[in-house]
């Protein structure tokens, strides 16, 4: 099965099952990392999906698998979820220009 994981808001992949297990060993992904599989409807945490590769592998196996990763194909998968940042409270136009609206002195 082909997987992608949320790497700071960017879909990183494709990875096969063995490569995902290797990424777990390398601590690049964790149980709360959002993943998406080809044919899946939504991004979910790894632990919630409990895929077959949710098993530990040795560090040697991890290095061998990750280094044989296929090329990245952007645009064929949904965008990874991005945490929405709330804008800071804005200062009014007149206050910016003239300094009006300050607190009592």
Please work out how many helical segments DSSP would assign: 4
> What radius of gyration results from the CA coordinates?
21 Å
Largest β sheet strand count, sense and barrel closure: 4 strands, antiparallel
Q: Helices and strands, in N-to-C order? A: EEHEEHHH
Report strand %.
15-25%
Q: What strand line-up does the widest sheet have?
A: 2-1-3-4
Find the structural class using helix and strand composition.
alpha+beta
Number of strands: 4
Globally, the shape reads: elongated
Mean pLDDT: 74
How far apart are the first and last residues' alpha carbons, in Å?
66 Å
Helix content: 25-40%
Briefly say what this structure is.
It is built from four helices and four strands; from the N terminus they run E-E-H-E-E-H-H-H. By secondary structure, the protein is an alpha+beta fold. The radius of gyration is 21 Å and the shape is elongated.
Topology:
Layout: E1 3-7, E2 10-15, H1 17-25, E3 34-37, E4 44-45, H2 46-49, H3 59-66, H4 93-98
Antiparallel strand pairs: 1-2, 1-3, 3-4
Helix pairs in contact: 1-3
InterPro entries: GYF_2
Organism: Prosthecobacter algae
Protein name: GYF domain-containing protein
Question: How would you describe the overall organization of this protein?
Answer:
A 4-stranded antiparallel beta sheet has the order 2-1-3-4. It is an alpha+beta fold and 105 residues long. A hairpin with a 6-residue loop joins strand 3 (34-37) and strand 4. The protein is elongated and about 65 Å long. The model has no long low-confidence stretch (mean pLDDT 74). Helix content is 26%, strand content 16%. Helix 1 packs across helix 3 (59-66). The chain has a domain at 3-66.
